[in-house]
Amino acid sequence: MAEVKLTAELRTEFGKGAARRIRRAAKIPAVLYGHGTDPVHIALPGHETLLALRQENALLSIEVDGKSQLALPKQVQRDPLKGFIEHVDLVIVRRGEKVTVDIPLHAEGETAPNAVAMWDRNDVSVEAEATHIPEGITVSLEGLEAGAQIHAADLQLPAGVTLAIDPQTLIVSVSDTRAAVEEEAAEAAAESGEEAAAEPAESETAES
């Protein structure tokens, strides 16, 4: 995974008002911490940071006051309505250091006729070098029949990458198409029944 270089500015003002002024200036408030260092409060360039964070587990090279620091996004806070980035927590990493991250899973191939893949997870936790985090892991569904299962241990991981979850964790199960449709219909009926049962209780509460 290539490093994304960002030039940041040190922040000297804090609080909601200061954060709003930073965002009005097309920048993003952030904090850089880890490896026993004191937290460093910075402002990141808005557009460049937004583009960088579209990539899962983006490896960032943050330059502050002429010094560069490698970091991974730990938490990205977004406005719940407008979706813009409000704040970013960045954790410092070192070259060669192992980190635990969630990697997205991508399907490849088609199941057998009359079979459908049911995903239990869309990502998997792995341990990898901070500078060699895979962008994704491919899961082959080619020709799988109803009844087949794929567990974490079955995933083809890149060299140097190891699982950080139980190897028996279920990733994908393959069902008969008709059985899958019937299961979805049964779940929908159960949900409708729960809602219908809840309505009279709400009415009784209102009357009392």
TrEMBL record:
Listed GO CC annotations: cytosolic large ribosomal subunit
Keywords: Ribonucleoprotein, Ribosomal protein, RNA-binding, rRNA-binding
InterPro entries: Rbsml_bL25/Gln-tRNA_synth_N, Ribosomal_bL25/Gln-tRNA_synth, Ribosomal_bL25_b-dom, Ribosomal_bL25_C, Ribosomal_bL25_long, Ribosomal_L25_dom, Ribosomal_uL5_bac-type
Residue ranges constituting the Large ribosomal subunit protein bL25 L25 domain according to the UniProt record: 6-90
Classification via Gene3D superfamilies: Ribosomal protein L25, beta domain, Ribosomal Protein L25, Chain P
Residues covered by the Large ribosomal subunit protein bL25 beta domain: 98-177
Pfam families: Ribosomal_L25p, Ribosomal_TL5_C
Annotated spans, Disordered: 182-208
Record-level GO BP terms: translation
UniProt GO MF annotations: 5S rRNA binding; structural constituent of ribosome
Domain of life from the UniProt record: Bacteria
UniProt key word Ribosomal protein: yes
UniProt record similarity statement: Belongs to the bacterial ribosomal protein bL25 family. CTC subfamily.
Family matches, as PANTHER family: RIBOSOMAL PROTEIN L25/GLN-TRNA SYNTHETASE, ANTI-CODON-BINDING DOMAIN-CONTAINING PROTEIN, RIBOSOMAL PROTEIN L25_GLN-TRNA SYNTHETASE, ANTI-CODON-BINDING DOMAIN-CONTAINING PROTEIN
Subunit structure: Part of the 50S ribosomal subunit; part of the 5S rRNA/L5/L18/L25 subcomplex. Contacts the 5S rRNA. Binds to the 5S rRNA independently of L5 and L18.
UniProt function note: This is one of the proteins that binds to the 5S RNA in the ribosome where it forms part of the central protuberance.
Descriptive protein name: Large ribosomal subunit protein bL25
